[in-house]
Every structure is written in structure tokens, then in C-alpha cells.
Design a protein that fits this description.
By secondary structure, this protein is mostly helical. It has a single domain (about 1-75), classed as ACP-like (Non-ribosomal Peptide Synthetase Peptidyl Carrier Protein, Chain A). The chain is about 60% helix and about 0% strand. Helix 1 (about 1-15) crosses helix 2 (about 35-50). The chain is globular, with a radius of gyration of 11 Å.
Length: about 80
């Protein structure tokens, strides 16, 4: 899943992405800002065919948090 996320992040942020860990904060990624945050969440929703709640969108700050939500949706 992290490889897929890295690809999505690279496409949206238009930067090569470093190797992700669960503790990687979105804010530490090259090209990250609030507009990129929203664009990335929308791209992840489309790719994984899920819908984040507004609370999840605001609270999600790390790769681990995103992965946990994706895994919960896909069991």
C-alpha cells in the first residue's frame, strides 16, 4: 500500500517521494501544503474507492493514520 501512496503523493505533489514509514508526517513531505493535503486526500479516495469523513480529513497527519483508515475500509 505504501508504494501506491508514494506514487499518488508524487503525482499530486509533483516531487519524488522519500520512503514512507508509519510515523512520516505529511507536513514533512516535499511540496506539502493545505491545498496539496486536500488534493491528495481526494486522489486517495478515488484510487481506493472510499470516502474519508470530514473529521478524518482534518485529523489525519501521518502515513500511519492514513494507512489505518484505508485498512479499516478494506478490511
Amino acid at each position: 500500500m505504501n508504494d501506491t501512496l508514494r506514487t499518488l503523493f508524487a503525482d499530486i505533489l509533483q516531487h519524488p517521494m522519500p520512503v514512507f514509514t508509519a510515523s512520516t508526517a505529511f507536513a514533512d513531505l516535499p511540496g506539502w501544503d493545505s491545498v496539496a493535503h486536500l488534493a491528495l486526500l481526494l486522489a486517495v479516495e478515488r484510487h481506493f474507492k472510499i470516502a474519508f469523513t470530514s473529521a478524518q480529513m482534518v485529523q489525519m497527519k501521518t502515513i500511519g493514520e492514513m494507512t489505518a483508515i484505508l485498512e479499516a475500509h478494506h478490511g
